[in-house]
Amino acid sequence: MQKVTVLGSGVLGSQIAFQSAFHGKDVVVRDLDDAILVQLPARWEYLAAQYRRDLPDASEEKLAAAVARIRVTSDLADAVGDADLVIEAVPEVLDVKRDTWAAVGGVAPERTIFATNSSTLLPSAIADATGRPERFLALHFANTIWRQNTAEVMGHPGTDPACFDAVATFADEIGMVVIPVLKEQPGYVLNSLLVPFLTAASTLFVRGVADVPTIDLTWRKATGAPLGPFQIYDVIGMQTPYQLSRTSPDPEQREFAAILKRDYIDQGKLGVASGQGFYDYR
After folding, report:
1. What is the 3-state secondary structure (H, E, C) of 75-101?
2. What percent of the chain stands above pLDDT 70?
3. What is the rounded distance in angstroms from the CA atom of residue 73 to the CA atom of residue 77?
4. Which pTM does this prediction carry?
5. 194-273 matches 3-181 in CATH topology
6. With bands split at pLDDT 50, 70 and 90, how would you rate the model's confidence at 143?
7. What confidence category does residue 87 fall into, taking pLDDT thresholds of 50, 70 and 90?
8. Most distant CA pair in the chain: distance in Å?
9. Which residues does the UniProt record annotate as the domain 3-hydroxyacyl-CoA dehydrogenase NAD binding (predicted)?
10. pLDDT tens, 26-77?
11. CATH of domain 194-273
12. C-alpha torsion angle, residues 274, 70, 97, 118 (rounded to 10)
């Protein structure tokens, strides 16, 4: 699968696009708003700087070639018209994802394989909206994918095994460690471990048990982990935890979402990528 379309140019969408292009794939990035797309060259510069810092093979020539392989558009039919693989990284809202895939299914070639990068939603909750559920599955990346390079591949009961294998092969080709998830599981392997950990940290914060630096320090010193939970939130970015927390049945999680919105998102403090989050990275 050489021709890849990424739907959504947020934190993960832009990383998926850049990583794919860095490993030689031809990439189209589609977002709804041309005003967002014109900002992407700055995002490529940011990611190139991270690759230079972290990857010994990130030469200037290879980075420039990666950027040259990326094309952007706001036109859905243009974006998916020749795609071998479409990877969706739109907001973590079921109706948004289903509407997106219904539109994609109407214009993509018959050969195209569809993959969602959803962090929490099951493929079976989305598959029928595509009109070709046998070619639909999940391909989930961890943030900072050039360094935290896992790719979880998870089908639903109707996924064609050949599509599963093709997506696993693609993930390997773009430098990922492939994690086959053998049955549907909310949160896959990674988030089944990570989300309860982050939720526990946000609950301590909301209850006023300890402040952010203390919670992070406790985890790092006691376990030897390189990052505390709120440092991980900053790497993830504020939007995904906000979307998940604001619809939670737990009132403390909804309170956490309100804090994220008021004190961070509305102030432009979106995490590492924006220079500020729970911590200042400027």
Report:
1. CHHHHHCCCCEEEECCCCCHHHHHHHH
2. 100
3. 10
4. 0.82
5. no
6. confident
7. very high
8. 54
9. 3-184
10. 999 999 988 899 999 999 999 999 999 999 999 999 999 999 999 999 999 9
11. 1.10.1040.10
12. -60
54 CB burial (10 A radius; 0-12, 13-18, 19+): exposed
Contact 188, 181 (CB under 8 A): yes
Q: Which two tokens stand for residue 25?
A: 């794939």
Torsion of CA 50, 51, 54, 57, to 10 degrees: -160
Going from N- to C-terminal start, the domains of the chain cover: 3-181, 194-273
Residue 76 near residue 102 (C-beta atoms within 8 A): no
E strands, 51-164, are: 70-73, 85-88, 113-116, 136-141, 150-154
Other Cβ atoms less than 10 A from the Cβ of 207: the count is 10
User: Which residues are within 8 A (CB) of 251 and not within 5 positions of it... i.e. 6 or more apart?
Assistant: none
Whether domain 3-181 has CATH 1.20.1740.10: no
**For residue 190, which phi and psi values (nearest 5 degrees)?**
-60, -55
71 three-class SS: strand
- pLDDT score of 76: 97
Tokens of 255: 């309170």
